Amino acid sequence: MERKVGAKRSAKKVASPSDGSQRDAIILNALVDSLHTIFETMMNTKVEMGAPIPKPANTVQSGVSALIGMNAHQARGSVAITLPMPALNEISRKLLGEEVTAIDMDAAGLAGELSNMLAGVAKRILSEQGMEFDMQTPQMMHGDGHEIEHHHDGQTMLLPVNMNGHEFFIELNFV
Questions:
Q1: Which of 28, 52, 65, 92 would give a disulfide with 82, using CB separation of 3.0 to 4.6 Å?
Q2: pTM (2 decimals)?
Q3: CA pseudo-torsion sign 36, 41, 42, 48
Q4: Residue 174 in this model has a pLDDT that exceeds 90
Q5: Rounded Cα–Cα distance for residues 26 and 151 (Å)
Q6: What is the chain's alpha carbon radius of gyration, rounded to the nearest angstrom?
Q7: Do residues 31 and 120 make contact, with C-beta atoms less than 8 angstroms apart?
Q8: CA-to-CA distance for 111 and 126, rounded, in angstroms?
Q9: pLDDT at position 16, please?
Q10: Are 150 and 80 in contact, with CB atoms under 8 Å apart?
Q11: DSSP letter assigned to residue 93
């Protein structure tokens, strides 16, 4: 089920996570800026961000996901991207010029590559603000009911993203 998401990019920054942590807000906004940069420059597409909300469980209904760890002396955590089939198809058409035909390891590889780009651009943005992060290799998951386990005690925040009427999700968990 797709739902409409709120604020458009005109409000460049997103509200900070519910715990009010300035560090979390900086990381979240770097990810949002990264997402806009990737979609506008590589896919000539705008995305609309929803408000970040606490994620209640690890389970994902369907699609593909990629999780990438990011660690610094100021924070450690991870970022995940989940692409349901409609969003996955749209992204595949924009980046590769072809549709995805199945939720499989090739589709998960696309999610992994997108997570690498997302974390890489965010890492550059954060570096410019004095936060140096190391990135890990993405873990890719796919299929109905797969789980994303962030391996940190922090609250996982879920950020809905809308691209041309197709919703996908960014998750972040930093401590």
A1: 65
A2: 0.83
A3: positive
A4: no
A5: 21
A6: 15
A7: no
A8: 22
A9: 43
A10: yes
A11: H
Torsion sign, CA atoms 108, 116, 19, 149: positive
The tokens describing 97, both together, are 């010029």
pLDDT per residue as tens digits for the range 97-142 = 998 988 888 898 899 999 999 999 999 999 998 888 888 999 999 9
Listed by start position, the domains of the chain span 22-174
From 107, 89, 96, 120, select the one nearest 146 (Cα to Cα): 107
Query: Looking at residue 48, what is its pLDDT?
Result: 96
Superfamily of structural domain 22-174: CheC-like (3.40.1550.10)
Residues forming a β-bridge with 167:
162
DSSP β-bridge partners for residue 83: 64
- In this structure, the chain runs to a length of 175
Beta strand 64-71 pairing with 76-83:
antiparallel
